[in-house]
Amino acid sequence: MDILTPLLSPVGKALYLDSATMQKTRGSVAKVRVQIDITKERPQHVWMGFSEKDPSLGKWQIIEFEDVPFYCLYCKHQGHIMGECPLKERDDEIKKRKEGETNRKIQEKQQNHNPRSNQQQEDDQGKSQPNRNNKEKGPAEEDTTHKEELKLKRKTKTNKRSRTKV
Are 11 and 52 in a shared domain? Predict the structure, then answer.
């Protein structure tokens, strides 16, 4: 117990050894009952130094935990882990719902700030641009075509006059 207690100090407080470890009948494995804090992360290995003079001599020994209860760091209850926590799932759903509502409210505010809807803006853009496929013309287009026709008539009159003079 005197040797194992300092080795296991990073893990927790050593309480007692199992009978095989006490009687030294099993030399490859030591089973120790250790009091641990389940709210903290457990180390996966400990350093076993073979010489106090040379700290580089030694090896990392893997720790195997047996019968450690599941503990949820989110709700602080035993019996499940954080990935399976029903409170966390519920809180995540509520958070998503609230985010969706705030996004919707922001979009509504933007639409209320601009009183004309996107559909109205698209309709207005379609009206301002002439539709070349349609034979109907807007008032501005009718004026330009009428002016062009008058210019053509004047040119033909001057051409006829010039022909008669020749």
Answer: yes
